[in-house]
Amino acid sequence: MTRVKMVEDNPGAVVIGRGNDRVAINFKSNQLGQVQTGLLSSILIELGDIEIEIRRSKKALETRSKSLNHRLNELGKSKKNGEKSKPSQAHWDYSPLFGPNMWSRIFPELKDRKFQSPIRIYTEQAEYEPILTRHPLIFDADDDCCQTLENTGHTFQVSGTGHTYITGGPVLDEFQFLQFHMHWGANEHEGSEHVIDDVRSVAELHIVTWNTTQFSTPQEAAISDQFDGLLVFAVLLNVVPTDNPMLGQLIELLPQIAHKGEKITLDSNVVSLRNFMPKNMEDYYTYSGSLTTPMCYESVRWIIYRERMSISRKQLNQLRKLKHTCASDKAVNGYIKKNFRPLMPINGRRIFRSFR
Question: Residue ranges of the Alpha-carbonic anhydrase domain (predicted)?
């Protein structure tokens, strides 16, 4: 029968077994001689003529203790100074696992947001607002305001900091160009995010501008959640047999940013922002909504132009050759074939139009 007892001459030891077959477990004592049962000092195993002794290394203990104390001290300093660790951005995309139907699980904050974009718009149900005509849009942009082209992993993006002056229409503040990008689908029956009179276009261009009157940075404007931080112009695209020369110069550059993270600097006047605006800037729909990608902040005043832009099937296929994977990834294809968000509930919002 196995026996467990404390050793009389060493209260910090426990012996299991008897005779020549036993295991002695020694606990470390503190400076006052009190036994610390949570910290082992050594283990002695006796099996007949064989003895095996395992001791704790003092050097390792001291090293570990110093390292642990250092980490605890640093953590204490961080908390004392009010420092916060930066959480890594959760992954999202347009796939079944990480796509729009899963965004509210990946980002629980989205569950509380009720005024999201895109939406379905019916012309007859949109309210005609004559003040939009009396207060026309002004969109003034230098030819060199488009300076970089990159693959974000979700779409292409053209951005720049050149001079722009944007105001009028549904806003009184001044806005500045930030970037433009596009959404498209896997076929000619899908692609645009907004749907007008039950018609979904093959693609949708978004020109994003930010409020320089009320905010000091684009990031501050984007997270404002007041429908006045960003002014986003949406241009829907229709497929046509021939290439659109206005899009041609941009699309010819896409092979240089085929993979996620790739970025190039644009030569002056290669991509002109004016070429992506419709000729008729007076006819549009407008409403309050959100960004259509996480974090889907409700900081956007939308302007959806009535006039469409053209794009050929060949040019559409060039868009679908962009990849959501990096050049170092071993994925065979990883093409961005579909990158639009499904329609969201209107939830009582009013939609206006500038035309009769």
Answer: 90-355
State whether residue 25 is helix, strand or coil: strand
Quick: pLDDT tens for 171-180.
999 999 999 9
Question: Would you state the CATH architecture of domain 100-353?
Answer: Roll (3.10)
Helix (H, G, I), strand (E, B) or coil at 352: strand
Q: How far is CA 287 from CA 80, 170, 226, in A?
A: 45, 9, 13
| CA distances to 72, 156, 233 from 205, in Å | 51, 11, 8
- Domain ranges for the chain, please list them: 1-57, 100-353
CA angle 234, 240, 246 (to 5 degrees): 60
Strands 127-128 and 352-353: parallel
- Residues with a catalytic annotation lie at 154
User: Which residue do the tokens 């001291």 mark?
Assistant: 62
Higher-confidence residue of 294 and 73: namely 294
Please compute the mean of the pLDDT values over residues 270-278 and round it to a whole number.
92
Q: Among residues 112, 110, 87, which one has the least CA distance to residue 100?
A: 110
Q: What is the mean pLDDT of residues 283-298?
A: 98
Amino acid code (one letter) for 64: R
Structure tokens at 312: 């050929």
What are φ and ψ of residue 255, in 5° steps? -60, -20
The arithmetic mean of pLDDT across residues 276-295, rounded, is: 97
pLDDT at 232: 98
| The residue to which tokens 């009157």 are assigned | 213
Note whether 243 and 219 are within 8 A (CB): no
Over residues 195-209, the pLDDT tens digits come to 999 999 999 999 999
What is the DSSP code (8-state) at residue 60?
H
Name the helix (H) or strand (E) containing 53.
strand 50-55
